[in-house]
Amino acid sequence: MAVVSELRGGVFSPDGQRQSRPTKIDFQEISKSFRSGLNRTTVLDRVNLKIPEGEFVSLLGESGCGKTTLLRIAAGLISPSRGKLAIDGKPISKPTREMGFVFQQPVLLEWRNVLENLLLPIEIFGLSAEEYRPKARELLQLMGLAHTENHYPVQLSGGMQQRVAIARALIMNPSILFMDEPFGALDAITREQMHTELLRIWSMSGATALFITHDIGEAVYLSDRVVVLSSRPGRVKKTFDIDLPRPRVPEHRFDDRFVSLCKDMKHCMTQ
After folding, report:
1. What is the per-residue pLDDT for 239?
2. Which of 14, 43, 108, 139 has the least C-beta neighbours within 10 A?
3. pTM for the whole thing?
């Protein structure tokens, strides 16, 4: 039940070549339309995308381009109108215990303390809370929140609440971590601090991460790859490999390569 403590390597080998990894999430010709009365709106159009195992991949695009819809399809929360989705080579039609979720709001139950909120997925899946309690405390320790296990959400700052949400997403050792703009509601300073915390914990988890954002700098700082989606209907416009070294540190934001990638993505999104 121990939390993985070995740091994960980057996706680039020492000679700068991208390492080959098996495909974890495979989108094949994914399209999605929604119908309202006589109107039909196409949100995604023929998305083809392979996400390698263990990588941190961000979906970047303007509001309404279908980023969240694509994540929801990957998680088995909704079905595509056409196309196929496979995880580890197998079709997915509903969420599984292999998936962890972090949303824009922490979604903590106000009448449960931090430790009880952390153990909520364990209760939902009918597992032993006693068995997972040591791991929950270890995750809180890793998040710098060991002193808060008996606190209630109202006693925590926004950043602390989101760290609890990330710990909750990791409680069952998911192989995939889905994150939908988890830091969008935080102030700039707290947001940058959370980037560092997220990467630190993710690097120890070994999970494949699919992260939704419309913030270019956030996408570059966090990711191994950034996939830029076009405006609605969302299509894969371009994929950027982020060859910045890991572990990432705040100084990377001033690196010439970081600035160049941000400029290239901005140009891609606006052209």
Report:
1. 97
2. 14
3. 0.88
